[in-house]
Amino acid sequence: MRCPCGCGERIELMVLEEAHTRWDITIDDAGRPTLHPSVWRKSGCRSHFWMRRGRIHWCD
Ligand SMILES: [Zn+2]
Fold it and tell me: Domain locations in the chain?
């Protein structure tokens, strides 16, 4: 997926092994993904957000 902040960087959730975190991905009946826990980039733009039902919810 592309970073939703607009910086254009790719986020490879499944290979972020250095984060020591796995994401649970749930797909609802409409095909919209929900990720748990939140995504917090440790480098680059340092975006921190949740994805709920295919929509981005920013953390402060
Ligand atoms: Zn970004």
Answer: 13-58
